[in-house]
Write a structure and sequence with these properties.
- This protein is an alpha/beta fold.
- The protein contains four helices and five strands.
- Strand 1 and strand 2 form a beta hairpin.
- 34% of the residues lie in helices and 27% in strands.
- The protein has one domain: STAS domain (Transcription Regulator spoIIAA), CATH 3.30.750.24.
- The C terminus is likely disordered.
Length: 123
């Protein structure tokens, strides 16, 4: 795991490799550490993850803090998040794909990261 971007309001954490059930304690500690950063949004980018075991995915979804968003997450985590009512915390790329969220849901997720008060409103 490495932090690829940090600002006072957002941190993007890139997760790579495998997240296995053999390291549930380490994964649990990482999720608890995220709770302490409630003063800003945290985006977990799973773009380089090759494997996520079921218990590790369940642990993440069951304990996901409200200020943590998931990006490029594996289908197993995405499905668990949807089932757990956390769809608003899953960011999805829509370029070249059929959007699974409404435009409003995408806008709300984007505005959560970058509040509109810092941008001019058009029309």
């Amino acid at each position: 795991m490495s932090r690829v971007l940090e600002t006072p309001s957002v941190a993007i954490v890139k997760i790579a490799g495998q997240i296995t059930d053999l390291d549930l304690d380490g994964w649990s500690d990482f999720v608890k550490q995220l709770e302490s950063e409630a003063m800003r949004w945290i985006v977990l980018d799973f773009c380089d993850v090759s494997r996520v075991d079921r218990q590790a995915a369940a642990l993440l979804v069951e304990t996901l803090p409200k200020h943590v968003l998931l990006l490029n997450c594996p289908i197993g985590i995405r499905n668990m998040a949807d089932s757990g009512g956390l769809r608003s915390q899953v960011l999805e790329a829509t370029a070249g794909q059929t959007a699974t969220r409404s435009p409003r849901e995408h806008r709300d997720a984007w505005e959560a990261l970058f509040p509109t008060s810092s941008f001019a409103t058009i029309g």
